Amino acid sequence: MSKDVKFVIKRRANPQSAPYIEEFLIPYFPKMNVVAALMEIQKNPVNTKGERTTPVAWDCNCLEEVCGACTMVINGQARQACSALVDQLTQPIYLAPLTKFPLVQDLVVDRKVMFDNLRKVKAWIEIDGTHDMGPGPRVSPKVQEQAYALSKCMTCGCCMEACPNVNSKSKFIGPAPIAQVDLMNSHPTGALQRERRLEALMNEGGIADCGNAQNCIKACPKEIPLTRSIARLNRATTFFGIKGWLNK
Amino acid sequence: MTVTHTFFWRKLHSLSGILPLGIFLMVHLFINSMATLGIEDFNRGVALLHSIPYLWFLELVVIFIPIIYHALYGVWLVYLTKNNTLNYRYFRNWLFYLQRVTAIITLLFVIWHVAVLRFSEGFINSNLDFEFVRTALNEPVILILYLFGMLASFGHFANGLWSFLVSWGVTVGEQAQRTAAYACFAVFIILTAVGINALLAFI
Description:
heterodimer, A: alpha+beta, Ubiquitin-like (UB roll), Fumarate Reductase Iron-sulfur Protein, Chain B, domain 2, 2 domains, five-stranded mixed sheet, two-stranded antiparallel sheet, B: mainly alpha, 3 helical TM bundles of succinate and fumarate reductases, about 0% strand
Protein backbone atom coordinates (compact mmCIF):
# COMPACT_ATOMS: atom_id res chain seq x y z
CA MET A 1 0.00 0.00 0.00
CA SER A 2 1.35 3.36 -0.92
CA LYS A 3 1.02 6.34 1.37
CA ASP A 4 1.43 10.00 0.57
CA VAL A 5 3.82 12.46 2.16
CA LYS A 6 2.53 15.98 2.64
CA PHE A 7 4.82 18.92 1.92
CA VAL A 8 3.94 22.45 2.99
CA ILE A 9 6.15 24.81 0.99
CA LYS A 10 6.67 28.52 1.42
CA ARG A 11 6.88 29.88 -2.11
CA ARG A 12 7.63 33.16 -3.77
CA ALA A 13 7.70 33.74 -7.53
CA ASN A 14 10.33 36.48 -7.26
CA PRO A 15 11.87 38.67 -4.54
CA GLN A 16 9.28 41.40 -5.09
CA SER A 17 6.14 39.27 -4.96
CA ALA A 18 4.37 38.23 -1.77
CA PRO A 19 5.18 34.83 -0.23
CA TYR A 20 2.47 32.17 -0.14
CA ILE A 21 2.06 28.63 1.11
CA GLU A 22 1.40 25.75 -1.23
CA GLU A 23 0.83 22.14 -0.22
CA PHE A 24 1.71 18.99 -2.15
CA LEU A 25 1.07 15.28 -1.64
CA ILE A 26 3.92 13.11 -2.89
CA PRO A 27 3.61 9.31 -3.17
CA TYR A 28 5.95 7.76 -0.61
CA PHE A 29 8.77 5.52 -1.73
CA PRO A 30 11.42 3.91 0.50
CA LYS A 31 14.48 5.98 1.46
CA MET A 32 13.16 9.10 -0.26
CA ASN A 33 14.75 12.41 0.66
CA VAL A 34 13.48 15.99 0.30
CA VAL A 35 15.31 16.48 -3.01
CA ALA A 36 13.61 13.39 -4.45
CA ALA A 37 10.24 14.74 -3.32
CA LEU A 38 10.94 18.10 -4.97
CA MET A 39 11.84 16.23 -8.16
CA GLU A 40 8.45 14.50 -8.03
CA ILE A 41 6.78 17.92 -7.76
CA GLN A 42 8.78 19.06 -10.76
CA LYS A 43 7.55 16.06 -12.77
CA ASN A 44 3.93 16.66 -11.84
CA PRO A 45 3.37 20.11 -10.31
CA VAL A 46 -0.15 19.64 -8.94
CA ASN A 47 -0.97 20.93 -5.46
CA THR A 48 -3.33 19.38 -2.89
CA LYS A 49 -6.27 21.36 -4.30
CA GLY A 50 -5.72 19.55 -7.59
CA GLU A 51 -4.60 22.74 -9.31
CA ARG A 52 -1.75 22.65 -11.80
CA THR A 53 0.92 25.05 -10.58
CA THR A 54 4.46 26.11 -11.39
CA PRO A 55 7.13 23.60 -10.32
CA VAL A 56 8.88 24.53 -7.07
CA ALA A 57 12.34 25.96 -7.71
CA TRP A 58 15.27 24.81 -5.58
CA ASP A 59 19.01 24.42 -5.84
CA CYS A 60 20.99 21.23 -5.56
CA ASN A 61 24.22 19.85 -6.84
CA CYS A 62 26.25 17.13 -5.14
CA LEU A 63 23.41 15.18 -3.47
CA GLU A 64 25.80 13.93 -0.78
CA GLU A 65 25.95 16.83 1.70
CA VAL A 66 29.27 18.26 0.63
CA CYS A 67 28.31 21.25 -1.54
CA GLY A 68 25.68 23.05 0.53
CA ALA A 69 23.62 24.15 -2.48
CA CYS A 70 20.36 22.50 -1.37
CA THR A 71 20.35 24.14 2.08
CA MET A 72 16.85 25.22 3.08
CA VAL A 73 14.71 25.50 6.18
CA ILE A 74 13.18 22.06 6.77
CA ASN A 75 10.71 21.81 9.66
CA GLY A 76 12.02 25.07 11.11
CA GLN A 77 15.74 24.40 10.94
CA ALA A 78 18.30 24.95 8.21
CA ARG A 79 19.76 21.78 6.71
CA GLN A 80 20.53 20.13 3.38
CA ALA A 81 17.55 18.78 1.47
CA CYS A 82 19.67 15.92 0.07
CA SER A 83 20.48 14.46 3.49
CA ALA A 84 16.99 15.14 4.91
CA LEU A 85 15.42 11.68 4.78
CA VAL A 86 11.63 11.66 4.79
CA ASP A 87 11.63 8.62 7.12
CA GLN A 88 13.36 10.71 9.78
CA LEU A 89 11.20 13.84 9.48
CA THR A 90 7.92 14.61 11.21
CA GLN A 91 5.10 15.11 8.73
CA PRO A 92 3.77 17.25 7.21
CA ILE A 93 7.18 18.46 6.11
CA TYR A 94 7.56 22.22 6.07
CA LEU A 95 9.98 23.68 3.53
CA ALA A 96 11.01 27.33 3.42
CA PRO A 97 13.93 29.25 1.94
CA LEU A 98 16.82 30.41 4.14
CA THR A 99 15.84 33.75 5.67
CA LYS A 100 19.29 35.31 6.10
CA PHE A 101 20.06 35.57 2.39
CA PRO A 102 18.43 37.44 -0.50
CA LEU A 103 15.68 35.34 -2.05
CA VAL A 104 15.81 34.40 -5.73
CA GLN A 105 12.73 32.23 -6.14
CA ASP A 106 10.81 29.68 -4.00
CA LEU A 107 13.54 27.78 -2.11
CA VAL A 108 16.46 29.35 -3.97
CA VAL A 109 18.51 32.01 -2.23
CA ASP A 110 21.68 33.87 -3.16
CA ARG A 111 24.47 32.96 -0.71
CA LYS A 112 26.96 35.34 -2.32
CA VAL A 113 27.46 37.18 0.98
CA MET A 114 29.17 34.09 2.42
CA PHE A 115 31.81 34.19 -0.31
CA ASP A 116 32.15 37.96 0.06
CA ASN A 117 32.81 37.39 3.76
CA LEU A 118 35.52 34.83 3.01
CA ARG A 119 37.14 37.47 0.83
CA LYS A 120 36.80 40.07 3.58
CA VAL A 121 38.69 37.94 6.11
CA LYS A 122 41.28 36.84 3.52
CA ALA A 123 40.45 33.16 3.90
CA TRP A 124 43.13 31.90 1.56
CA ILE A 125 46.82 31.12 1.72
CA GLU A 126 49.14 33.14 -0.49
CA ILE A 127 51.45 30.72 -2.23
CA ASP A 128 51.61 31.93 -5.80
CA GLY A 129 54.88 33.44 -6.93
CA THR A 130 56.68 34.01 -10.23
CA HIS A 131 59.17 31.29 -9.35
CA ASP A 132 59.27 27.94 -7.57
CA MET A 133 59.18 28.65 -3.87
CA GLY A 134 60.13 25.12 -2.86
CA PRO A 135 58.24 22.81 -0.55
CA GLY A 136 56.21 24.39 2.24
CA PRO A 137 56.93 23.86 5.92
CA ARG A 138 55.81 20.65 7.58
CA VAL A 139 52.56 20.57 9.50
CA SER A 140 52.25 18.40 12.61
CA PRO A 141 49.56 15.70 12.52
CA LYS A 142 47.80 17.39 15.43
CA VAL A 143 47.43 20.66 13.52
CA GLN A 144 46.43 18.71 10.41
CA GLU A 145 43.65 17.02 12.35
CA GLN A 146 42.28 20.33 13.64
CA ALA A 147 42.59 21.84 10.18
CA TYR A 148 40.73 18.94 8.59
CA ALA A 149 37.69 19.52 10.81
CA LEU A 150 37.63 23.21 9.83
CA SER A 151 38.23 22.49 6.15
CA LYS A 152 34.93 20.62 5.90
CA CYS A 153 33.02 23.91 5.73
CA MET A 154 30.89 24.01 2.56
CA THR A 155 29.57 27.57 3.08
CA CYS A 156 26.07 26.10 3.22
CA GLY A 157 24.74 28.84 5.51
CA CYS A 158 23.22 26.69 8.28
CA CYS A 159 25.28 28.53 10.93
CA MET A 160 24.21 31.87 9.47
CA GLU A 161 20.55 30.86 9.54
CA ALA A 162 20.80 29.62 13.15
CA CYS A 163 22.72 32.66 14.45
CA PRO A 164 20.43 35.25 16.09
CA ASN A 165 23.05 37.95 15.52
CA VAL A 166 23.14 37.40 11.75
CA ASN A 167 20.18 39.31 10.33
CA SER A 168 19.24 42.24 8.15
CA LYS A 169 19.80 44.73 11.00
CA SER A 170 23.31 43.59 11.89
CA LYS A 171 26.51 43.53 9.85
CA PHE A 172 27.84 40.38 11.52
CA ILE A 173 29.73 38.17 9.05
CA GLY A 174 28.63 35.04 10.93
CA PRO A 175 30.45 31.97 12.28
CA ALA A 176 31.61 30.32 9.01
CA PRO A 177 34.25 32.87 7.91
CA ILE A 178 35.62 33.08 11.47
CA ALA A 179 36.34 29.34 11.46
CA GLN A 180 38.07 29.76 8.10
CA VAL A 181 40.38 32.37 9.62
CA ASP A 182 41.21 29.79 12.28
CA LEU A 183 41.95 27.28 9.51
CA MET A 184 44.16 29.61 7.46
CA ASN A 185 46.01 30.92 10.53
CA SER A 186 46.76 27.38 11.71
CA HIS A 187 48.74 26.65 8.56
CA PRO A 188 52.42 27.69 8.79
CA THR A 189 52.36 29.39 5.38
CA GLY A 190 48.95 30.90 6.00
CA ALA A 191 50.17 32.22 9.35
CA LEU A 192 52.32 34.74 7.43
CA GLN A 193 49.09 36.72 6.85
CA ARG A 194 47.78 36.01 10.35
CA GLU A 195 47.70 39.63 11.49
CA ARG A 196 45.91 40.83 8.37
CA ARG A 197 43.17 38.26 9.00
CA LEU A 198 42.90 39.25 12.67
CA GLU A 199 42.55 42.89 11.60
CA ALA A 200 39.80 41.88 9.20
CA LEU A 201 38.01 40.06 12.01
CA MET A 202 38.23 43.17 14.19
CA ASN A 203 36.50 45.29 11.58
CA GLU A 204 32.84 46.22 11.57
CA GLY A 205 30.62 43.14 11.60
CA GLY A 206 33.58 41.07 12.79
CA ILE A 207 34.13 38.61 15.60
CA ALA A 208 33.06 41.01 18.38
CA ASP A 209 29.47 40.82 17.09
CA CYS A 210 29.23 37.21 18.25
CA GLY A 211 26.79 37.00 21.16
CA ASN A 212 27.62 33.43 22.26
CA ALA A 213 24.22 31.93 21.56
CA GLN A 214 26.26 28.95 20.26
CA ASN A 215 23.54 27.77 17.88
CA CYS A 216 26.15 27.55 15.11
CA ILE A 217 27.97 24.54 16.51
CA LYS A 218 24.66 22.67 16.84
CA ALA A 219 23.40 23.71 13.40
CA CYS A 220 26.56 22.84 11.47
CA PRO A 221 25.93 19.66 9.43
CA LYS A 222 29.68 19.09 9.14
CA GLU A 223 30.18 19.24 12.93
CA ILE A 224 32.81 21.97 12.66
CA PRO A 225 33.86 23.15 16.15
CA LEU A 226 32.75 26.71 15.34
CA THR A 227 32.45 27.96 18.92
CA ARG A 228 35.97 26.76 19.69
CA SER A 229 37.31 28.66 16.67
CA ILE A 230 35.39 31.77 17.71
CA ALA A 231 36.68 31.59 21.31
CA ARG A 232 40.25 30.93 20.12
CA LEU A 233 40.09 33.96 17.84
CA ASN A 234 38.46 36.00 20.60
CA ARG A 235 41.65 35.36 22.52
CA ALA A 236 43.88 36.10 19.52
CA THR A 237 42.10 39.36 18.62
CA THR A 238 42.04 40.49 22.26
CA PHE A 239 45.81 40.01 22.60
CA PHE A 240 46.43 41.46 19.15
CA GLY A 241 44.27 44.49 19.95
CA ILE A 242 45.96 45.19 23.29
CA LYS A 243 49.43 44.65 21.85
CA GLY A 244 48.65 46.88 18.90
CA TRP A 245 47.41 49.64 21.15
CA LEU A 246 50.41 49.42 23.50
CA ASN A 247 52.82 49.48 20.56
CA LYS A 248 51.14 52.40 18.88
CA MET B 1 46.13 49.12 12.36
CA THR B 2 42.81 49.71 10.67
CA VAL B 3 40.50 48.41 13.35
CA THR B 4 37.14 50.11 13.54
CA HIS B 5 35.73 51.20 16.83
CA THR B 6 33.03 48.52 16.98
CA PHE B 7 35.52 45.95 18.28
CA PHE B 8 36.69 48.26 21.07
CA TRP B 9 33.20 49.32 22.15
CA ARG B 10 31.87 45.75 22.07
CA LYS B 11 34.74 44.51 24.23
CA LEU B 12 34.33 47.48 26.57
CA HIS B 13 30.62 46.68 26.89
CA SER B 14 31.47 43.13 27.92
CA LEU B 15 34.12 44.31 30.37
CA SER B 16 32.05 47.12 31.90
CA GLY B 17 29.41 44.59 32.96
CA ILE B 18 32.01 42.85 35.14
CA LEU B 19 34.35 45.69 36.02
CA PRO B 20 33.09 47.91 37.59
CA LEU B 21 29.37 47.03 37.46
CA GLY B 22 29.54 43.39 38.59
CA ILE B 23 31.96 44.26 41.36
CA PHE B 24 29.71 47.14 42.41
CA LEU B 25 26.68 44.82 42.42
CA MET B 26 28.44 42.49 44.85
CA VAL B 27 29.66 45.32 47.12
CA HIS B 28 26.17 46.81 47.11
CA LEU B 29 24.66 43.47 48.12
CA PHE B 30 27.28 43.04 50.82
CA ILE B 31 26.47 46.43 52.37
CA ASN B 32 22.73 45.66 52.16
CA SER B 33 23.38 42.45 54.04
CA MET B 34 24.32 44.55 57.06
CA ALA B 35 20.55 44.65 57.56
CA THR B 36 20.74 41.02 58.66
CA LEU B 37 22.86 42.15 61.62
CA GLY B 38 20.38 44.72 62.85
CA ILE B 39 18.84 48.14 62.35
CA GLU B 40 21.76 50.05 63.81
CA ASP B 41 24.29 48.19 61.70
CA PHE B 42 22.38 48.90 58.51
CA ASN B 43 22.04 52.58 59.30
CA ARG B 44 25.74 52.69 60.11
CA GLY B 45 26.49 51.08 56.71
CA VAL B 46 24.36 53.65 54.89
CA ALA B 47 25.97 56.50 56.80
CA LEU B 48 29.43 55.11 56.04
CA LEU B 49 28.65 54.94 52.31
CA HIS B 50 27.35 58.49 52.33
CA SER B 51 30.46 59.75 54.12
CA ILE B 52 33.00 58.34 51.64
CA PRO B 53 35.38 61.09 50.41
CA TYR B 54 35.00 62.12 46.73
CA LEU B 55 31.68 60.23 46.75
CA TRP B 56 30.16 62.09 43.81
CA PHE B 57 33.28 61.50 41.72
CA LEU B 58 33.37 57.79 42.58
CA GLU B 59 29.67 57.42 41.87
CA LEU B 60 30.07 59.18 38.55
CA VAL B 61 33.12 57.27 37.31
CA VAL B 62 32.61 53.86 38.88
CA ILE B 63 28.81 53.62 38.68
CA PHE B 64 26.90 56.15 36.61
CA ILE B 65 29.07 56.46 33.49
CA PRO B 66 29.65 52.68 33.16
CA ILE B 67 25.99 51.90 33.81
CA ILE B 68 24.72 54.45 31.30
CA TYR B 69 27.20 53.23 28.70
CA HIS B 70 26.42 49.55 29.38
CA ALA B 71 22.67 50.24 29.22
CA LEU B 72 22.61 52.40 26.09
CA TYR B 73 24.97 50.20 24.09
CA GLY B 74 23.18 47.13 25.46
CA VAL B 75 19.78 48.32 24.28
CA TRP B 76 21.33 48.76 20.83
CA LEU B 77 22.61 45.16 20.98
CA VAL B 78 19.16 43.91 22.02
CA TYR B 79 17.74 45.69 18.97
CA LEU B 80 20.36 44.11 16.67
CA THR B 81 19.32 40.58 17.62
CA LYS B 82 16.66 38.49 15.96
CA ASN B 83 15.88 35.78 18.49
CA ASN B 84 15.00 32.30 17.22
CA THR B 85 14.50 30.21 20.35
CA LEU B 86 11.33 28.62 18.95
CA ASN B 87 13.17 27.01 16.03
CA TYR B 88 16.52 26.49 17.76
CA ARG B 89 15.59 25.33 21.25
CA TYR B 90 19.06 24.95 22.64
CA PHE B 91 20.04 25.74 26.22
CA ARG B 92 22.60 28.38 25.21
CA ASN B 93 20.16 30.00 22.80
CA TRP B 94 17.62 30.32 25.63
CA LEU B 95 20.25 31.87 27.88
CA PHE B 96 21.19 34.24 25.03
CA TYR B 97 17.51 35.27 24.81
CA LEU B 98 17.14 35.53 28.60
CA GLN B 99 20.25 37.70 28.71
CA ARG B 100 18.33 40.23 26.61
CA VAL B 101 15.08 39.85 28.55
CA THR B 102 16.87 40.32 31.88
CA ALA B 103 18.74 43.27 30.39
CA ILE B 104 15.50 45.16 29.86
CA ILE B 105 14.03 44.13 33.23
CA THR B 106 17.26 45.12 35.02
CA LEU B 107 17.38 48.44 33.19
CA LEU B 108 13.82 49.38 34.21
CA PHE B 109 14.44 48.14 37.75
CA VAL B 110 17.67 50.09 38.14
CA ILE B 111 16.12 53.33 36.80
CA TRP B 112 13.26 53.05 39.31
CA HIS B 113 15.54 51.94 42.14
CA VAL B 114 18.06 54.76 41.61
CA ALA B 115 15.41 57.42 41.00
CA VAL B 116 13.66 56.62 44.27
CA LEU B 117 16.43 55.54 46.64
CA ARG B 118 19.43 57.51 45.42
CA PHE B 119 17.92 60.70 44.08
CA SER B 120 14.58 61.55 45.67
CA GLU B 121 15.13 59.90 49.08
CA GLY B 122 18.94 59.80 49.32
CA PHE B 123 19.68 63.25 47.88
CA ILE B 124 16.64 65.43 48.14
CA ASN B 125 14.82 64.25 51.27
CA SER B 126 17.81 62.48 52.85
CA ASN B 127 15.65 60.29 55.02
CA LEU B 128 17.11 57.03 53.74
CA ASP B 129 17.41 54.58 56.61
CA PHE B 130 16.30 51.13 57.74
CA GLU B 131 12.84 52.38 58.63
CA PHE B 132 12.29 53.90 55.21
CA VAL B 133 13.33 50.70 53.39
CA ARG B 134 11.24 48.60 55.77
CA THR B 135 8.10 50.63 55.08
CA ALA B 136 8.70 50.36 51.33
CA LEU B 137 9.44 46.63 51.29
CA ASN B 138 6.40 45.81 53.39
CA GLU B 139 4.28 46.83 50.42
CA PRO B 140 3.80 43.43 48.73
CA VAL B 141 3.98 44.98 45.24
CA ILE B 142 7.30 46.67 45.94
CA LEU B 143 8.69 43.51 47.53
CA ILE B 144 7.74 41.43 44.49
CA LEU B 145 9.16 44.03 42.09
CA TYR B 146 12.40 44.02 44.07
CA LEU B 147 12.55 40.25 44.02
CA PHE B 148 12.08 40.20 40.24
CA GLY B 149 14.53 43.04 39.70
CA MET B 150 17.14 41.32 41.83
CA LEU B 151 16.73 37.94 40.16
CA ALA B 152 16.95 39.57 36.72
CA SER B 153 20.10 41.51 37.57
CA PHE B 154 21.80 38.49 39.21
CA GLY B 155 20.92 36.27 36.25
CA HIS B 156 22.12 38.90 33.82
CA PHE B 157 25.38 39.30 35.71
CA ALA B 158 26.05 35.56 36.10
CA ASN B 159 25.38 34.77 32.45
CA GLY B 160 27.24 37.91 31.41
CA LEU B 161 30.23 36.68 33.38
CA TRP B 162 30.17 33.41 31.43
CA SER B 163 29.86 35.31 28.17
CA PHE B 164 32.66 37.70 29.17
CA LEU B 165 35.01 34.74 29.70
CA VAL B 166 34.28 33.52 26.15
CA SER B 167 34.33 36.95 24.50
CA TRP B 168 37.68 37.86 26.00
CA GLY B 169 39.11 34.48 25.03
CA VAL B 170 39.64 33.16 28.56
CA THR B 171 37.56 29.97 28.19
CA VAL B 172 38.21 28.47 24.76
CA GLY B 173 37.53 24.72 24.91
CA GLU B 174 34.12 23.09 25.40
CA GLN B 175 35.12 21.60 28.77
CA ALA B 176 36.45 24.93 30.04
CA GLN B 177 33.25 26.67 28.96
CA ARG B 178 31.14 24.02 30.68
CA THR B 179 33.10 24.34 33.93
CA ALA B 180 32.76 28.12 33.73
CA ALA B 181 29.00 27.68 33.26
CA TYR B 182 28.76 25.68 36.50
CA ALA B 183 30.82 28.31 38.31
CA CYS B 184 28.63 31.13 36.98
CA PHE B 185 25.52 29.24 38.01
CA ALA B 186 26.99 28.98 41.50
CA VAL B 187 27.55 32.75 41.46
CA PHE B 188 23.88 33.22 40.56
CA ILE B 189 22.71 30.92 43.39
CA ILE B 190 24.95 32.57 45.98
CA LEU B 191 23.92 36.10 44.95
CA THR B 192 20.24 35.09 45.01
CA ALA B 193 20.54 33.53 48.46
CA VAL B 194 22.36 36.56 49.88
CA GLY B 195 19.95 38.95 48.15
CA ILE B 196 16.80 37.25 49.43
CA ASN B 197 18.28 37.04 52.90
CA ALA B 198 18.96 40.78 52.84
CA LEU B 199 15.42 41.51 51.62
CA LEU B 200 13.89 39.33 54.34
CA ALA B 201 15.79 41.27 56.98
CA PHE B 202 13.43 44.18 56.34
CA ILE B 203 10.22 42.17 56.56
